[in-house]
Amino acid sequence: MTIRFILNGEDVKISAEANQRLINILREQLALTGAKCGCLCGNCGACSVIFNGAVSPSCLIPAFRVQGSEIITLEGFSQTLEYQDIAEGFSKAGVENCGYCDAGKILCAELLLEQSFQPSKEDFTAAFRGVRCRCTNAESLYQGILAAGEVRRRRTYGRVT
Ligand code: FES
Ligand code: FES
């Protein structure tokens, strides 16, 4: 079937089987490899994309659902100032970025920071329940989110509180 959608702000038209996984379309047809093939069953977050405004596992999205959708991948998001906030915050807090879970970790961080520059531990835990990071423990990751939130706050409002 022919599928049209918006990918990282650009109109895209592809041909795919209706039940083909979005993760495979991204990686094999569109050469976007920021989303990784992990568990392929929705449990690890390595294949995450922002799908119609929500962080979603692209391994569970069949091609027919992509029709008319809007998708942002890690590659698209990495071109934004918001990405820079998170990269700087994670770096300050010593959060590992081996690349495997970045799509889930960074895109979930963004949706969390859109709600608050200082998300609670409970909100962090809920937002990251679908992300499995083998390199960073949860507390370090939470500190990275808070550091990124502070970077975001300063960029938005300056240093005066
Ligand atoms: S590969 Fe999709 S959630 Fe693990
Ligand atoms: S940074 Fe390596 S798996 Fe998360």
Q: What is this entry, summarized?
A:
This protein is of the alpha+beta class. It has helices at 22-29, 63-66, 74-77, 81-93, 102-115, 121-127, 138-157, and strands spanning 2-7, 10-15, 48-51, 54-57, 70-72.
Name of the CATH class of the largest domain: Mainly Alpha
Mean pLDDT: 95
How much helix, percentage-wise, in residues? 40-55%
Radius of gyration from the alpha-carbon trace, in angstroms: 16 Å
SSE string: EEHEEHEHHHHH
The third-level CATH topology of the largest domain is DNA polymerase, domain 1
Total helical segments: 7
CATH homologous superfamily annotation of the largest domain: [2Fe-2S]-binding domain
Q: Compounds present?
A: FE2/S2 (inorganic) cluster
CATH architecture of the largest domain, by name, is Orthogonal Bundle
Major beta sheet, strand line-up: 2-1-5-3-4
Low-confidence stretches: none
Number of DSSP E strands: 5
Strand content: 5-15%
What's the number of structural domains? 2
Major sheet: 5 strands, mixed
Terminal Cα separation, in Å?
53 Å
Q: Mind explaining what this structure looks like?
A:
By secondary structure, the chain is an alpha+beta fold. The protein has two domains: 2-74, Beta-grasp domain (Ubiquitin-like (UB roll)), CATH 3.10.20.30; 81-157, Orthogonal Bundle (DNA polymerase, domain 1), CATH 1.10.150. The chain has seven helices and five strands. It has a five-stranded mixed β-sheet. A hairpin with a 2-residue loop joins strand 1 and strand 2. Helix 4 packs across helix 7 (138-157). The termini are far apart. Bound molecules: FE2/S2 (inorganic) cluster (2 copies). One FE2/S2 (inorganic) cluster binds at residues 37-40, 42-47, 57, 59.
